[in-house]
Amino acid sequence: MSMAESSPAIRLTDIYKSFGPVQANRGASLEVAAGEIHALVGENGAGKSTLMRVLSGMYAPDSGRMEVFGRDVTGWRTAEAIDAGVGMVHQHFMLVPTLTVAENVMLGRELTKNGQLDRERAEREVAELSRATGLAVRADRTVADLSVGEAQRVEILKTLYRGARILILDEPTAVLSPPEIDELWQVLRQVRARGETIVLITHKLDEVMEISDTITVMRNGRTVARLRTAETRPAEIAKAMVGRDVQLAMHYIDEVRGADTAARTHLPPSAPLLEVRDLLVEDARRLTAVNGVSFSVAPGEILGIAGVEGNGQTELLEALAGLRDVRGGRIAIASRDITRLTVKARGDAGLSHIPEDRHARGLILDYSVAENLILGQQHRFTRGVRIDQERIHENARRQIAAYDIRPVDPQLPARALSGGNQQKIVIAREMGRAFQVLLAAQPTRGVDVGAIEFIHARLRDARDAGKAILLVSADLAEILALSDRIAVMYGGRLVTVLPRAEASEEVLGPYMTGAATEHAA
Fold first, then answer.
1. DSSP letters of 348-396?
2. Strand 22-32 and strand 10-19: pairing?
3. 3-state class (DSSP) for residue 165
4. Got the DSSP string for 432-461?
């Protein structure tokens, strides 16, 4: 056996990497055996993605040693990493929407015939690779027409086509539905069975336990634990990530199945704070996305909406928030009709909105933390006709402290913060104001276990203070952990509404996939 064959697939030793005054990696280490699925976990800002970008040649380390299959590759470039079989699939896809699947896979390594792209051969080779790996997607389809899950398959195909022996996936399930996640796990197991090595960057501990063989935990830029998945528990991983005991959503689900849920299920009736009747909303293609939806949310209640993404949840929340026109129906807060009000007027009526995409809808990344904390509420921070900077800064100091936003500097641009802390800015702004109804869309998407625990606690506090909360999440564990009642949205309709005590993954799953028939609330 050669030294390369006996060496780990990856060995990173004492890696340091800084960006100006920010130290992303502080002596981080990683060792991954060939032919295994290795989970790299840690809070947002722990240095996971930076370490993998160092490995993939995007960044050169300030110091430390890098080895791949026993070869010293310290400071290599991206092209060298690709040639050596290291490929990284980033959280935000790097595909050209107007090109076909085959063209994207071949990009930079085009197959030509008489000086032109040999499309027939390219499509044939991509189709063969698709069949061999289980990454089902048609080679001739345009990427713009693909679902998120299909686009991710193309990214993985592109990496494998280039001969990747080490596949790095950065938060690959952040925008996938449960069925798409199951399909991804099947693919990764097939890739592992072929002898390839996989590094999975994630913060979702149920996924870590489901798919990985071994685990490295990072905290504050350092490696703090190496674990074998079969010999550990989610609570142990979470404690290593955060440095303290953490209440996990999956554990809270077990708790709420008891007397507390039964008591909340039988809350005395009261006038709803949010009422939606016969709502009709179109999508960007002018097709009906929300089809006659009706529901209400009472004071002190969280109504969770579960469902595979793309079944009208986005259009529903945007219509309620005033970001999308309503074709028919009625929306009311505390019996006041707000169907035709502006976003500002809805806010003044007591509506807050945590949008599903914090970058597109929730933040202006080049604005300071303080400025982002008053977006949509600027009119409340004026003195005469001028902006009151003193009040803005006082608000920022108060919200930063109350919502544990880090770093604590209100003048930093929002883009300088980790994803979890960016989400806390949005949470603080929307929940730190006077509101009656909260629309919470994917409130913990892309954040770590510590931030999830914090955000869940704030949502429960608001519920217990008598607010009405409409929660939309692709994370079924989150829906089950937080909701008092659960609705399932499929094909633009609410196909069932159940008390939490009657809901489970097994009960909700058939409704989410359309296998169960419609059940009246």
1. HTTEEEE-S-IIIII--TTSBHHHHTTTT-GGGSEETTEE-HHHHHHHH
2. antiparallel
3. coil
4. SS--SEEEEESTTTT--HHHHHHHHHHHHH
Q: Which domain holds residue 41?
A: 3-245
Q: Are residues 133 and 233 located together in one domain of the fold?
A: yes
Residues 449 and 460 in one domain: yes
| Residues 345 and 403 placed together within one structural domain of the fold | no
Residues near 299 by beta carbon (within 8 Å), at least 6 away in sequence: 270, 271, 272, 273, 466, 467, 468
Say if residue 124 is in the same domain as residue 35: yes
Sign of CA dihedral 55, 57, 61, 64: positive
CATH number at residue 99: 3.40.50.300
**Cis peptide bond upstream of 407, omega within 30:** yes
**Alpha helices for 107-147 (secondary structure H):** 119-133
Give the count of domains, the chain.
3
What's the Cα-to-Cα distance from 493 to each of 48, 513, 518, rounded to whole Å? Answer: 40, 13, 9
- Final residue in a domain of this structure, among 245, 279, 299: 245
What's the CA gap between 66 and 83, in Å, rounded? 16
Angle, helices 148-161 vs 178-193, to 10°: value is 10
Interatomic CA distance for residues 318 and 472, integer angstroms: 12
Same domain membership, residue 265 and residue 119: no
389-402 vs 419-431: helix axis angle to the nearest 10? 110
CA distance 284 to 289: 9
Instruction: Specify whether 64 is located in the same domain as 180.
Output: yes
* Rounded Cα–Cα distance for residues 499 and 246 (Å): 27
Three-state DSSP class for residue 244: coil
Mark which of 203, 221, 245 sits at the end of a domain.
245
User: pLDDT tens digits, the chain, 521 residues: what are they?
Assistant: 444 456 899 999 999 999 888 899 999 999 999 999 999 999 877 899 899 999 999 999 999 999 999 999 999 999 999 999 999 988 777 889 999 999 999 887 777 777 777 888 888 999 998 888 878 889 999 988 887 778 888 988 998 888 899 999 988 887 676 777 888 899 899 899 989 999 999 878 888 999 999 999 999 999 999 999 999 999 999 999 988 887 776 544 444 444 344 444 444 457 999 999 999 999 877 899 999 999 999 999 999 999 887 889 999 999 999 999 999 999 999 999 999 999 999 999 999 999 988 988 899 999 999 999 999 998 889 888 788 999 999 999 999 999 989 888 999 999 888 778 899 999 999 999 999 999 999 999 878 788 888 899 999 999 999 999 999 998 888 999 999 999 999 999 999 999 999 999 889 988 988 887 665 54
In angstroms, the Cα distances linking 374 to 187, 378, 392, 424 are 44, 6, 7, 13
